[in-house]
UniProtKB/TrEMBL annotation:
This is Glycerophosphodiester phosphodiesterase. It comes from Alkalihalophilus sp. As8PL. InterPro entries: GP_PDE_dom (IPR030395), PLC-like_Pdiesterase_TIM-brl (IPR017946). It comes from the Bacteria. SUPFAM superfamilies: PLC-like phosphodiesterases.
Length: 247
């Protein structure tokens, strides 16, 4: 049976506004194995769930996320840009998502974002919440900032973690082990099958992003990737079911 985990990228973001509670709830109801979402800090150092450094694209606000307090961020709509039906959706705090996820058997891939000058603050604010809600065994920490991941692992080495890459790295197996992570999240299609197999053979969990076509979903599942990030978890679950039916 194919065990490639399906992660809803920013929730079920094809049909719902990304990084909102309605998108996460939709992914859960579809049966996704996990959700992926982005966390950065407000001006008053509260971890909030939003992708961009600025508010302009996914809210009715403007300016930098980090220039606003959590109270100011909460006054904005995080759904009206997508559809007027989601006008009441707000920017979630990380704590709100953790509370929601506490009674749900889902893996949470938390992508750490924010200014490089805030690395210490990110680690000090996020890790205690994961322990408070007893979710450390269901969390994967990932980031394009490999330094913040390394810092987090020094404090909480028990956490599963991954580097995110946008290029075809030379000797990625060695690099991943040097950073100290167990996961390698790569931009599709920047791995050849033999490179993917070498990583898997080395015990590294590879997960491509962001995969929305049926053909690529099928290919990565046949490669036996540990997981796949997709905006369309419904399609990915159907593809996985079809593959399992053929076995």
């Amino acid at each position: 049976m194919n065990k490639t985990a399906i992660f809803a990228h920013r929730g079920a973001s094809l049909h719902y506004p990304e990084n909102t509670m309605v998108a996460f709830e939709a992914a859960y109801k579809l049966g996704a194995d996990g959700i992926e979402f982005d966390v950065q800090l407000s001006k008053d150092l509260v971890p909030v769930v939003i992708h961009d450094a600025t508010l302009n694209r996914t809210t009715n606000g403007s300016g930098y996320v980090g220039a606003h307090t959590v109270e100011q961020l909460k006054s904005l709509s995080a759904g009206s840009w997508f559809d007027s039906a989601f006008t009441e959706e707000k920017i979630p705090t990380l704590e709100e998502v953790l509370i929601w996820a506490s009674d749900k058997e889902m893996t949470l891939n938390i992508e750490l974002k924010g200014a490089i000058t805030q690395r210490d603050h990110v680690v000090k604010t996020i890790l205690p919440l994961l322990h408070e809600y007893e979710l450390t065994k269901r969390v994967i920490l990932s980031s394009f900032d490999h330094n913040v991941i390394h810092k987090a692992l020094k404090v909480a080495p028990e956490l599963e973690s991954a580097v995110i890459v946008t290029a075809a790295l030379y000797m990625p197996e060695r690099y991943v082990k040097e950073v100290g992570v167990s996961g390698y999240h790569f931009m599709s299609p920047l791995l050849l099958e033999e490179e993917a197999k070498a990583l898997i053979h080395a015990g590294i969990k590879i997960r491509p992003y962001t995969v929305n076509s049926e053909g690529l979903l099928k290919m990565y599942m046949e490669w036996e990737c540990a997981g796949i990030f997709t905006d369309n978890p419904k399609l990915a679950l159907q593809v996985r079911e079809q593959l399992n039916d053929k076995e």
